[in-house]
Design a protein that fits this description.
There is one protein chain. A five-stranded antiparallel sheet has the order 4-3-2-1-7, with helices on one face. It has a two-stranded antiparallel ribbon with strand order 5-6. The chain has about 110 residues and is mainly beta. A hairpin with a 6-residue loop joins strand 5 and strand 6. It starts with 7 loop residues before the first strand and ends with a strand. The relative contact order is 0.25.
Length: about 110
């Protein structure tokens, strides 16, 4: 259902390590489309280990989907260069991977 003025979630993902059953979440992103006729898109990036009021969250608005997707692509590309991240085992670190979910346009 589309409700004018309420953002529509278009894509979300977690940067994780560990098992798929019990992953350690390191970063979260969300891409939303504003349905008020402006064509505005929002990309939000959150550090799962930090509080939002302590700099653990950033949000940026873009005038079109292309710009929002370009910004997200940069985040996904840069994340490949992170050093191995911890799992639930304090002695074990491993390369992180993205678990992403997309929603089709209405």
């Amino acid at each position: 259902m589309i409700v004018v003025g309420i953002p529509k979630l278009r894509e979300a993902g977690w940067l994780i390590t560990g098992t798929d059953r019990d992953p350690v979440r390191h970063l979260f992103f969300r891409v939303e489309q504003t349905l008020d006729g402006t064509g505005e898109w929002t990309v939000e990036l959150s550090d799962c280990r930090r509080r939002a009021d302590d700099g653990g969250r950033t949000q940026r608005r873009y005038s079109c989907e292309t710009d929002a997707r370009t910004a997200l692509a940069a985040v996904l590309t840069l994340s490949r260069h992170l050093p191995p991240l911890p799992t639930w085992d304090p002695q074990l670190c491993e390369p992180a991977r993205w678990r992403v979910r997309s929603w089709l346009p209405d």
